[in-house]
Amino acid sequence: MNGADDAEQELRYSRVRAAMAENGLDLLLAYGPGWRRENIRYLTDARVTGSAALVLVPAAGEPSAFSVRPADLGVIAQRGWVTDVVRLDFPASTVLVERLRDLAPSRIGVAHLELLPQAIADAIAAGAPGAEVVSATGLLDDARMVKSDWELAQMRRSAAVCAAGWQKFVDVLEPGLPEYRIVAEVEAELKRLGAEDNFMLIASGGDEVMGMTPPGPRLLEEGDMVRTELTPQMNGYWLQICRSAVVGRASDAQRRSFDLFNEAVEAGLSVVRPGITAHEVAVAENDVFRKYGYGEYCTARYTRVRGHGHGLHLDETPIIEGNHTVLPERAVFIVHPNTYTPIAGYHVLGDPVVVTATGYEVLIETERVLFETPQGVAA
C-alpha cells in the first residue's frame, strides 16, 4: 500500500505543533502501547508492532522515535518521516532520559499519559526533573479527528472492503454452519483484498441473544438472525459496517426490530452536521427507542455506545449521551444504535459517515436492509 506523501506529513506536524503552542507545550511525547498505536502511526506513517513505542516531538526541530522492538526501527526509518530512530531500553529507558536532558523541556504533554508504564514515567521525571507533565491525549485525538483528503481516500478504500466483507458474510450463511467458519470466510476475503487486520464480533440465534462476542462453535439454524460488526483496516485506517441477516425468511418480529433500528439510524444521521456533538447524535438515536417504549434498552445495562469515531484507531470518540465532544467537518464516525430489545433480541445496524460542510456522506454503498439468505428471499 502507498504511504502518505510529504504534504500529508507537513499537514500533520503543523497541526500538532499548532496545538502544542496553544497548550503551552515545548515537547510532545506520544506513547503507544501494543494495543493503541494510532498516534505512533499518525506521526511516523509506519506500522509498528512492538509492545511499546514513543514519538518525541519538540516545538522546533526534528522528531525522534523509539521502540522496544528492533524490527520497528528499520520500518520507521525506511518510511522517512522520522529519521532519528532509537531502540527503547525498557524498563531503564536511559536513552529517553538522555534525550530529555538534552532538550530540557519545561512543559511536556504525553499522549496516552493515562496508559504510561511507571518505568517510562520515572524516566521522564529523571530526564526533565523540573518539567510539568500533562496529558496530551485529547490534543492528538482532536488532531486526528479532522481527516485530510489523503486519509479520506484510505477510508473510502476501507469502505469498499467493508462492503465486500459483508457480501461474503451473507453468501456463506446456511443452516449447520458454525459461527467460526463465517468469520474465517470473511477474514480470508478481507485479507485477499489487502486488509491489514479486521476487528469482528458476531452473534447468532433468536430473541434470546443479548450481545455479540468472538465467534464460537454454535451451528446456525433456520430462522436465526446473524449479527456482526465487521471492521477491516486498510493502510492503517479502520472502518466498520454493522448489519444483521436472517438464515432463510425473516419473521415479523425480526422485521419490526429492523424497522425500529433503521428509524434510529435515520434519526442519528438526520442531525449530523459540522459542530454537532456526540451527545446530540446519541440523543437523536435514543429518542426513537424512548418514543416506542424501549428507552431502558439504551442504558448501560444493555448497550455500550450509539456509535464511535473511526480512523487510525477503530473505536475513537464514543457516540454516547453525556459526551459533548464536537464533531467537526471531516470527522468520520459510525452511527449504530446496536442494543438488545425483546422484539427480536440484539440487533446490529449502522453506517459510517464523514461530516461534510452541509451535513454528511455515507461512506458505504451496502443497502441498509434486513438481509435474508437466498432461500428466504425466494420463499
As laid out across the biggest beta sheet, the strand order is 4-3-2-1-5-6
User: What's the total number of strands?
Assistant: 17
Spatial gap, N to C terminus: 44 Å
Name given to the CATH homologous superfamily of the largest domain: Creatinase/methionine aminopeptidase superfamily
Oligomeric category: single chain
Shape: elongated
- What pattern of helices and strands is seen along the backbone? HEHEEHEHEHEHHHEEEEHEHEEEEEEH
**Would you tell me which CATH topology of the largest domain applies?**
Creatine Amidinohydrolase
Ranges where pLDDT stays below 50 over 5 or more residues in a row are: none
Helix coverage percent of residues? 25-40%
- Main sheet specs: 6 strands, mixed
CATH classification, class level of the largest domain: Alpha Beta
Number of domains: 2
Mean pLDDT equals 96
Question: How much is the radius of gyration in Å?
Answer: 22 Å
At a glance:
Residues 12-146 form the Creatinase N-terminal domain. This protein is α+β, with helices and mostly antiparallel strands.
Spell out the blueprint of helices and strands.
Layout: H1 6-22, E1 27-33, H2 38-44, E2 52-58, E3 64-67, H3 70-79, E4 84-87, H4 94-103, E5 107-111, H5 118-127, E6 132-135, H6 137-145, H7 149-172, H8 179-192, E7 197-205, E8 225-234, E9 237-238, E10 241-246, H9 252-270, E11 276-277, H10 278-291, E12 307-309, E13 326-327, E14 332-335, E15 351-355, E16 360-362, E17 371-372, H11 374-378
Helix pairs in contact: 1-6, 4-5, 7-8, 9-10
Protein name: Aminopeptidase P family protein
Keywords: Aminopeptidase, Hydrolase, Protease
Domain Peptidase M24: 154-356
